[in-house]
Amino acid sequence: MLALSYMLALLLTLGAASPLEKRSQALDDCLSAAGLSPISSSSSDYSSTVLPFNLRLQRFPAAVVFPKSIEAVSSAVKCGNELGIAVVARGGGHSYASYGLGATNGALMIDLSSLHSIVVDSDGQAHVGGGARLGDTALALNAKGRAMSHGVCPWVGIGGHAAFGGYGPSSRKWGLTLDNIVAYDVVLADGTIKQGLTASEDADLFWALRGSAPSFGIVTTYHFRTYQRPSTVIVSTYSYPAGALSSTTAAQVFLAFQTFGKTKAPSALGLKINIFKGKSVLAGASFQGSRAEYDQVIAPLLSSLPGGYTSSVKTLDWIGSLKEVAGGQPLSSQGASDYHDTFFAKSLMVPSATPLTQAALEAFFNYLWTTATSSNWFVEFDIYGGLGSNINARSLVYSSFAHRAMLLGGQMYASSPNYGLPYPSDNLNFVQGMYAALTNPMLGAWAGTQGAYANYVDPTLTKDEAKALYWGSQYPRLASLKKRYDPTNVFRGGLAIVGA
Ligand SMILES: Cc1cc2nc3c(=O)[nH]c(=O)nc-3n(C[C@H](O)[C@H](O)[C@H](O)COP(=O)(O)OP(=O)(O)OC[C@H]3O[C@@H](n4cnc5c(N)ncnc54)[C@H](O)[C@@H]3O)c2cc1C
User: Fold this and answer.
1) Is 456 designated active site?
2) Is 384's C-beta closer than 6 angstroms to any atom of ligand 1?
3) Among 101, 441, 495, 499, which is most buried by a count of CB atoms within 10 Å?
4) Domains and CATH numbers, the chain
């Protein structure tokens, strides 16, 4: 069924079957000659192979390969390049826009799941395959007494995560996942293999990869700096029950959280605030240190929050803290299978210089508390910046990641009523509405300085909006490097830089 839809879609796109069939056959021949055993739409396992995490956005690659070495990735890229077919990597497959399948139908998808090895040296440097998952990476590091900064979902792939950012509870202390990359093993658009590529070998390429990797190469191994695993981590939540807060008081809770994050939270403290359907609000913290230190650090936040919350404070070891922030999910992917969702999300990054105002937050909560929707939605904002944030300690010269002066990073996310298909259009409108309710009152003050996080990619943005929100002033340099490193635009698989 999927295979048939794919053929129909391509016929509609290209208008004539013959050149398409010839190109597909040529791709198949090229990949087979390289020993890559491609899966195409006629293969019995095609449908399951191309099933996206976000069921809302299905795309149909022309062929899928599962290379087991960097040389095999290079051979596949050369096939795509020679035949003018877009080439795209799939790491963990968790792109919000299913970009691991390509931006449009007909791409060559290079699935990196066979390249999942994780090796930790005695000096603590970690070599993580482009197809590894975050949970498996954390476990392998933990076994050597090491840790690094990354997001909370164990199933997310390091491939996309480290390509565009990588934010988690320890990012204010250790920087984003991509801030800790010391070298790349990467295949470039013409199939060139670069192993152990450092900034001193090619500063421009390294800068571009660190924040925009999918437009410049396929990373087969990330080489990371890691940190000594903390002995204790305090994980806490402060929850207001459903319906307890008016929109005015909810805005005060948010403001207290934002002000504390900006002025008082040390870098060892990760902070988030969640808002859920049913009108509940939860602030959460993760702190590297002892309970006594935590109590001192968190006191100013607690004294500024309106009453009525219940608290939970747990003292955990490092790996226990990762399980806790993952909602109790197992960290290992071994013998387990991933779930799927059907959703739309928008991301917002709020500049440190112009935090959210009470008026904007009241408008936001008013919208959330009064707008009917069948979706299952949530909102999350994390403190990126503030006192001593090591995300903001880096300049724009350090990487092509564009957001080094943001206070908050967040997302507004709505799943379909049963988390499966179909996705009602009112759910999408609901997210657009909440984004507008929060941002419209701020647009004048921001004057274009707000941003969006590429790892929470929003495929409804126009090209110009995407340029401004994801890359801002970094875009012109990226566009000129794209022309140098990928002149024929081989890597055009979604959220791609266009050479200029
Ligand atoms: C449930 C869930 C929880 C999440 N939690 C967090 C979080 O806590 N913090 C956070 O920062 N983000 C989070 N994210 C966002 C996540 O970081 C991004 O979706 C990320 O891009 C997924 O990477 P992937 O490899 O799994 O996805 P894929 O779909 O495989 O890839 C995403 C993009 O990266 C490209 N890509 C993948 N691998 C490579 C590679 N090796 N080389 C070059 N390009 C590559 C793909 O072509 C695609 O464009 C979450 C996402 C989900 C779905």
Assistant:
1) yes
2) no
3) 101
4) 2-111 (3.30.43.10), 118-229+476-485 (3.30.465.10), 233-316+340-460 (3.40.462.20)
